[in-house]
Amino acid sequence: MEKFQVLIVDDELDFLETIVKRLRARNIEVSGVESGYLALEALDSRNPDVIILDVKMPGMDGIETLKEIKKKKPLTEVIMLTGHASVESGIQGMQLGAFDYLMKPIALDELLEKVRQAYERKLTQEGRGSH
C-alpha cells in the first residue's frame, strides 16, 4: 500500500501520543493535534488522507470540527472516536459525512483496518482506486 497521511485529533494527550507512536511504528505518516482549531490549522499546511477525530473535546467539538473539515477538504475521510455516552454523536458525524465511528477504547488493529478502508474509499472517490 502506498504511503498515506493520517491526522489524529484528540485532547487526551496520552492517548494522542500513544496512537501517533504506534502508527509510526507501522510506517504510517501520522501527526497529532489536540484540538479542532489546531486540526483546521493543520489542514492549511498538510493534506491528510484520513483524520481520526475525537467527538468530545473542549472548545470546538468533533462534530463542529468535522463540518469545517468537510468544507475545506471534502474528500478527506474522517473516522470519529466516541465514548459510550456519545454514540449519537458518532451517528450524527456519519450523517455529516464521516466515514465511520469507533468506540473508545479502541483496539489498534481495528483502528488500522478502518484507516485502510477509509483511505481506499478516498482513493476511489478521487478516481485513483484499485477497484
Under CATH, the homologous superfamily reads Response regulator
Tell me the number of structural domains.
1
CATH C-level? Alpha Beta
Q: What Rg is obtained from the alpha carbons, in whole angstroms? A: 13 Å
CATH topology: Rossmann fold
From the N-terminal CA to the C-terminal CA, the straight-line distance is 14 Å
Strand count, sense and barrel status of the largest sheet are: 5 strands, parallel
In the CATH hierarchy, what is the architecture at level 2? 3-Layer(aba) Sandwich
> Roughly how much helix do the residues carry, as a percent range?
40-55%
The total count of helices amounts to 5
Using DSSP, what is the number of strands?
A: 5
Q: What general form does the structure show?
A: globular
Rounded mean pLDDT is 92
Strand percent estimate: 15-25%
